[in-house]
Specification:
Layout: H1 3-10, H2 21-30, E1 40-43, H3 49-58, E2 62-66, H4 69-81, E3 88-92, E4 105-110, H5 119-126, E5 130-143, H6 150-159, H7 166-175, E6 178-185, H8 188-205, H9 211-230, E7 234-243
Parallel strand pairs: 1-2, 1-4, 2-3, 4-5
Antiparallel strand pairs: 5-7, 6-7
Helix pairs in contact: 1-9, 2-3
Length: 244
Amino acid sequence: MNPDAFFALYRDLPQLGPGSDVCTREALKRLPPLPPSPRVVDMGCGVGRQTLVLAETLRTRVLAVDLHPLYLDQLEREARARNLSAFIEPRRADMGALDLPAGSVDLLWSEGAIYHLGFGPGLHRWRPMLAPSGLAAVTECSWLTDGRPAEAVRFWSEAYPSMGTVPENRATAEREGYEVLDTFTLPASAWWDYYTPLLQRIERMRPTADASLREVIQETEREIALYRDHGHSYGYVFYLLRVQ
């Protein structure tokens, strides 16, 4: 897939994956109390929809980590517009190779990004950064049913072959040294909050799309159609964790 075509389609969207401000706040509400002035990191923040919610709710500085400067620039613009710049520190870095001191993070957040590392490897990589009894809130695409449509199995076996069930992911988190405090599945509305602006963008760009962009559009429409038909069988799940 041509990266320039990908960024052309996804640039300036309000979010880059399933999620919602309501779900972010619900996850925060379900966590135990944080220490005063908690040290917070948002891994793979993208354009920072959830970063802004964290900053606005916690009123503490959030280190927002992503590899792509276009996304961080968009986050900075939105932070300025919402008077939140003082609470957000964008950093261009690889979330899988971030060099933070051991025990320096009270709350590690990551929505729709850990799949780049794999659920277990990502949790393993991030655990040393967390303070004793530090908290993590991570969304991960997970199988929700035992009976899985063949079309969904084919798609995810290509896109994310290591995708697990909720019990499997809970067990993985425990093996990596976390206590699983809670889990909840994002509602369908959190997917359509992402897909609806994307579909609108596709319709605007389709008439003038070149071959590379048409390929990205085709793959994106395939993904959306799959969720429309088989979204009951998989979804993003919030895993709320504490270091043991």
